[in-house]
Design goal:
Pfam families: GATase (PF00117), GMP_synt_C (PF00958), ThiI (PF02568). This protein is α/β, with parallel strands linked by helices and about 500 residues long. The protein is built from 15 helices and 18 strands. Helix content is about 35%, strand content about 25%. The protein binds xanthosine-5'-monophosphate.
Length: about 500
């Protein structure tokens, strides 16, 4: 939960409402009760609201400084900023002129709170006093034409302050600021209730109206949940597509189609595009080039088919880590590009619907459970957009794909038999492209090397390799060399992330 300290603001309740809209519980308390409430409720973060007083007035409404000793994030809004400046060692003075209503906020230094926002944005202010010196350790993160310190932050202490009001509707991207604070900085999680599902469906219905929407399904949980929510909102005006890139696992396409048909009522069109993908990948060995080609081809194939349906909206299963990562490192951005059928060309003619934008993967799984989506979808291991292409080192060919598919199916089967499938993040085989010498039936055989990668992770950012029981490893190895003719050697990948990524390419 997030604690809101109300300094007499007109909008403290509105802050509470916005936080609750994000699926997070709040408690609004008066300044005098803040410390005891922090002790009692153990909030994940504190928001200090605006208010009409002056920090330097005789009867100034201050807060027990002890509150800042709680090792939790703080967000000061308006008067909250002034209070933090004043009580944490900066300085506040009366402004030269009152500033009410819209103004332009310009980011001076990026931080987690302002992540993903435009450098310049229209915000709403309502104040007279202003901070003229930030607390020691803090830096100015943004200004307006008349206020130099319109935002400051001390990221090491997770203390953030903004002079404008993110909670009011007119502040551009105010919701993003609050969600950055709550989910990214406080690491709070949205709690999913049936009422939230109804509300999410309602919002989708309002946005799409009587129009048509399309969605690309992969069989993964994110796109499945996004599609199902949308289906509940607009019914058969949703058309789903499954693109068979030819880079899928053993029998995956048939299984996915069968599962969808069995469990979901939405219209599903299958696009068979293996030939197109394999042709485009001919001769390509650079991993990034592979990813780019696959992403681009996917979009073109999907677009061509989706346009024919006359849809104006595109539903995507974007989740919160994708949102963060899309502005993160180069590698993360590429992950996102494929993940969401993203890397959409700038002009694609669709309005985007992203119902899961504020959720983490585990929350999507919770939501799926609440929506009674079968476990085979909920616990399916993550599979990368570029599919087996990033698990084949070097050029992707149909022969290599067939070898890899057989080996991979054995890995997954044995992991399932050992009862470990649902506890781990991913288990898969990699076609290493390394040829090595073997001896089979008294004959020398120069064959393929398959690597087995089994990892556990909570949030994709870091991962550890799973200490599989020897008997499981043994079984996997024995079966691969026995059942996949071309393979003479099996190795186990024992690298953490970092430094290695989960996928080999
Ligand atoms: P890495 O290899 O970056 O992967 O440690 C982290 C997680 O993301 C998945 N992954 C992808 N998913 N499109 C996706 O949809 C991609 O291009 C992609 N690359 C990696 C990977 O399988 C792992 O679970």
């Amino acid at each position: 939960m997030i604690l809101i300290v109300d300094f007499g603001s007109q909008t403290a309740h509105l802050i509470g409402r916005r936080v609750r809209d994000l699926g997070v519980e709040t408690k609004i308390v008066l300044p005098n009760d803040a410390v005891s409430a922090a002790n009692q409720f153990k909030p994940k973060g504190v928001i200090l609201s605006g208010g009409p007083s002056s920090v330097y007035a005789q009867q100034a409404l201050l807060i027990d400084r002890q509150i800042f000793n709680f090792q939790i994030p703080f967000l000061g809004i308006c008067y909250g900023l002034q209070l933090m400046a004043h009580q944490l060692g900066g300085r506040v003075t009366p402004g030269k002129k009152k500033e009410y209503g819209p103004t332009v906020f310009r980011i001076a230094a990026q931080n987690k709170l302002l992540k993903g926002l435009n450098r310049e944005m229209r915000v709403w202010m309502s104040h007279f006093d202003q901070a003229v010196k930030v607390p020691p350790g803090a830096t100015i993160s943004g200004s307006t034409p008349s206020v130099e310190i319109a935002a400051f932050a001390d990221e090491s202490k997770k203390q953030y302050a903004i002079q404008f009001h993110p909670e009011v509707h007119h502040t551009e991207d105010g919701g993003r600021i609050l969600s950055n604070f709550i989910f990214d900085i406080c690491r709070e999680k949205a709690d999913i209730k049936t009422a939230d599902i109804i509300q999410m469906t309602e919002e989708i219905r309002k946005k799409i109206g009587k129009n048509k929407a399309v969605c690309a399904l992969s069989g993964g949980i994110d796109s499945t949940v996004a599609a199902y929510l949308t289906y509940q909102a607009i019914g058969s005006n949703l058309v789903c597509f499954y693109v068979d890139t030819g880079l899928m696992r053993e029998n995956e396409t048939n299984q996915v189609i069968d599962s969808f048909k069995k469990h979901f009522p939405f219209r599903l069109k299958v696009i068979r595009a293996e030939e197109i993908f394999l042709k485009k990948l001919e001769g390509i060995i650079d991993p990034e080039e592979k990813r780019m080609i696959i992403g681009e081809t996917f979009i073109r194939v999907f677009e061509e088919n989706a346009k024919k349906s006359g849809a104006g909206f595109l539903v995507q299963g974007t989740i919160y880590p994708d949102v963060i990562e899309s502005k993160g490192t180069e590698h993360a951005e590429k992950i996102k590009t494929h993940h969401n059928v993203g890397g959409l060309p700038e002009k694609h003619g669709f309005k985007i619907i992203e119902p899961l934008r504020m959720l983490y993967k585990d929350e999507v799984r919770l939501l799926a459970k609440k929506m009674k989506i079968p476990n085979e979808f909920i616990f399916r291991h993550v599979f990368p957009g570029p599919g087996l292409a990033v698990r084949i080192i070097g050029e992707v060919t149909r022969d290599k794909l067939d070898i890899l598919r057989k080996a991979d199916a054995i890995v997954v089967e044995e992991i399932k038999k050992a009862g470990l499938y649902e506890q781990i993040w991913m288990a898969f085989a990699v076609f290493t492209g390394v040829k090595s010498t073997g001896v089979t039936g008294d004959e020398r055989k120069y064959g393929e090397t398959i690597a087995v990668r089994v990892i556990e992770s909570k949030d994709t950012m870091t991962a550890d390799w799973v200490k599989l029981p020897y008997r499981v490893l043994e079984r996997i190895s024995e079966r691969i060399v026995a059942e996949v003719f071309e393979v003479v050697r099996v190795v186990y990948d024992i690298t953490t992330k970092p430094p290695a990524t989960m996928e080999w390419e």
